Amino acid sequence: MSDEAGRRAAMPSEEEVRRLVRSVVDAVSSTPAAVAAPVPPVPGAQPAPAPTAGASGVPTAVPGDAAEPAAVSIAIGADHGGFGLKQVLAKWLAEKGHPVTDCGTHSTDAVDYPDIALAVARLVADGTCTVGIVIDGAGIGSCMAANKVPGVRASLCHDVSTARNAREHNYANVLTLGARLIGEGLAMDIVTTWLATPWGAARHGARVDKITAIERTYAAPGTEGRAG
Fold this sequence. Notes:
alpha/beta, Ribose 5-phosphate Isomerase B, Chain: A
C-alpha cells in the first residue's frame, strides 16, 4: 500500500468525526460549572423591580432572585423542516413550566420560514412573550427574518458556547436553530443554556445599546418594537 493510500485509510470517517464532536459537546455541557451555577431569570419573566436602562432602553441590571429562576413565556415556531424538533421542544418546555405559544407550523406540509419567524418575532417585540425560538432546516433564514423586526435580537446557535455568548454578550431574545444540523439532545442543551445564561450588562450593555441605536436609525417611523 502506498503512503498516500495508507494516510487515507487512517483518516477517520465522517460519522466517527460527528460522534467525537457530539461527545465533546456533551462533556462540556454537562460539567458542574455549566449546570450547577446559580443563574438569574431571564429579564421580564415575572414582575420585579424595574432595572436601570441604558441610553437605548436595554436594562443594565438583571432583576429577580438568582436562586429561583422563574418560568419564562416562550413563543415557538418552525417551518416544515423544523416541525418535528419544534414539537419535541414545545412539549419539553411546557413540562418544565414555561408558558409556550405555538406559532406553527402544525404539519410537515411546506411553508415559508419568514412567515413563521415573523409570527414569533412579533410576540417578542410587542412584549406578549419574553423570548422566542424559531426552527428551520439550518436556522439561518429564520434568524435573518426575525432580526428585521425592530426590538428583536435573534441569534443562531449551534452549540452551548454560542448559546451562552448570545445571551451574555448580545442580550438575544430570539433563538434560532437548524433542525437538520443538530439533534434533539443538543437542541435541549442549547435551549437550556440560552435560557439560563444571565445578561452581562455591566460589560456589554453599551455595545448592545449601539445595536439598538442602529436599529432605530433605520426603522420606519412607528415600527419600533418594545422588546428590551
